[in-house]
Write a structure and sequence with these properties.
By secondary structure, the protein is α+β, with helices and mostly antiparallel strands. Helices cover 16% and strands 34% of the residues.
Length: 73
């Protein structure tokens, strides 16, 4: 599947297939609140997997689109 991704600055987090859930929890519960950044749109998050890897220790890159600044009210 090909997905077009709009241009954005992204924070990139490395994890494994086995730790995706814990990594997302860390991103949203710990890293993002203190980052000074605003999460642009959770629907635009994406993960990059190496071809042909599905083992628990396979590497994954999670991309979170951001902009600097405080959330608007």
């Amino acid at each position: 599947m090909i997905r077009v991704v709009n241009s954005a600055h992204c924070a990139v987090f490395e994890c494994t297939m086995a730790t995706i859930g814990a990594t997302y929890s860390f991103i949203h519960d710990e890293w993002l609140p203190g980052s000074g950044c605003v999460h642009l749109c959770p629907k635009r998050d994406f993960e990059l997997y190496a071809p042909g890897t599905d083992a628990a220790d396979s590497p994954v890159l999670i991309h979170i689109p951001l902009r600097r600044g405080e959330p608007s009210s």
